[in-house]
Description:
87 residues
Amino acid sequence: MTAQRLPETTAHVRITYQSWQHGKLEGEVSANDFAWQFQWKFRGGHLRVEPSLGRALIQEPLGRFLERFDYQLEPGGDYSFTIRAQL
């Protein structure tokens, strides 16, 4: 019996704004033909992703990525992470 591989999609993240004083990161995330803007208030753990089209596919994996790497992310930086789904 062979195990089926889960589909994978690479999401690309660009940080456009960061304020430690306000506890906020803003940026853009894209995966395949989808693109979103996000705002993450890391002090309260609130993540807003717009537009709503496809948001359910990206919000949870993006939130995990931001929580894991928040102190390493800088404005102007380009980052990526893998989503275990086909978008």
